[in-house]
Amino acid sequence: MNFLRTIAAASLAFAVSAMPAWGQQLIRDTEIEEVMRDYTDPLLVAAGLSPNDVSVHLVADPSINAFVTAGQRIFLHTGIIVEAETPNQLIGVIAHETGHISGAHLARSGDAMRAASVPVYVSMGLGLLAAFAGEGGAAGALLASSQQFGALSYLTYSRGQEASADQAAVNLLDATGQSSLGLVEFFERFRYQEVMSQARRFPYFRSHPLSSDRIAALREVVETSEFYEVRDTQEEIDRLRRIQAKIYGFLMEPRFVFWRYPESDQSLPARYARAVAYYHDARIEEARAELDTLIAEEPDNPYFQELYGQMLFESGFAEESIQYHERSVELMPAAALLRINLAVSMIATEDPRLLDEAETHLRVALDVEPSNPFAWYQLSLVHERNGDTPLAQLAIAEQSFAIGNRSRARQFATRARAELEQGTIAHFRASEIIAVSAPTEQELREQRRQRRQQPR
Questions:
Q1: Cα 391–395–396 angle (5° rounding)?
Q2: Does residue 158 lie in a domain region?
Q3: What pTM does this model have?
Q4: I need a labelling partner for 380 at 20 to 30 A (CA). Which of 11, 85, 180, 312 fits?
C-alpha cells in the first residue's frame, strides 16, 4: 500500500470518527462570504472590534437563525440570508449579533461552544466528491476537512441582554450611516413567533426571545434616528438577490428551484439559480446556455467564471474547467478558494506539467488562509506525485493540525521530520507541530486512566 492510499484510509477513518451527531454543515463560498463581510466589517469597526479577529461562518440550514460563539465568531444560517427582504434587514440582525459580542453576552460555555470553535471548511464553490468519484483520498480529505456542525440553541439570552443588543445595534447602524428600520421589520415579520411553542419556533427566536413590548420599544428608538429614512439602493438589493438565488440553487432540489425561478423569469438572479439547478440535475447543456448568457452580460464577473469551472469539473471535464478557473483567479487574485479551485482542476488532470503551477496557487491560497485543511490536503497530493513523500507527510500534518486532530498531526509530522533535512524550514515546521501537538497533562492522565480500565 503506497503512501497516498494510506492517507486516504486514514482520512476517511478520521472523518467518520470526528463527526459529531449534529445536523448542520458549514459551507464556503467566496461570493457570499464577500457580501457578508461587506455587511459585517463596518459594524465591527464601529463597535471597536477588529474585523480580522471576528470570523463569519455560513451554516447550510434553511431555518432562520444567527448566533455568536466564544472566540468572536458569527454564524449565519443560509435560511436567514434567503428570507431577508432587504439587505438592511440582514444587516440589522448582524448588528444585533455584534451587540452581543461587544456586550460580552457569551458567559455560558461548554461542549457546544468548544465544538463551534473547530475550524471547518466545506466549499460550496469546490464540490469535489463527484469529480473525484473513485479516488477515496480526495473524498476522505473533503470529509476530514468538513466537520459536521450543529448548534445552536445552547445559548439563550436574557431580556436585559436582548434590550442591550438592540440598543447596540441601533448605535452601530447610526455610526455607519444606516437605518435600523430593517431590524424592526425583521422582528415584525416574525412577531407571531412569541405565541408559538418552543418546539415550533425558529431557532433564532428560541435563543433570542421576542415580544411585542420589545418590538415597540425598539421602533420608538429607531424612529428618532437621523438615519431612519435611509434605504437600500437598488444595486444593494440586486446584490442580495444574486446570493439568495445562488444559495437556493445550490441547497434546494432542482424542482423547487425551477418552481421559484421559472423559465419565464429572465432576471439575472433567476438565470443564476437555474444554471446551478440545471447542472445539479445533470442537464449540462442547459446549464451551459444559462451561464453563457450570464458571462456575456458580465464577462468580468469572477463568480460566473468560477461556477462554469465548477460545473465542468464536477461533470468530469477537469481540463476544460481550467480556463474558467484561471479567469476567475485573474479577476480576483486574492481569493483563496478560487485559487484552490484552479489547483484542484490542475491536479485532477493528472498532467505532471501542471503540478508546479498547482503548487504555486495552493501556496498563495495558504498565505491567505493558512489553516485551510483542504488546501493542505491538495498540497500533499502535489508533493506525493512529485515523489516528495516527506513534504506530503508534512502537509497532512498541517491538515490534521488545522482541523484539531493533534495526535494525527504529531504522527505525520514525526514521520516527515525523520526524513527532512535538518535546518530547513520544513524540518523546523515539523518540529514545531510535534511540540505544539504534544498531549496535555490532563490528556495523559485520561489515557493512563483508560489503560487501567482495559481488561487484562
A1: 120
A2: yes
A3: 0.83
A4: 312
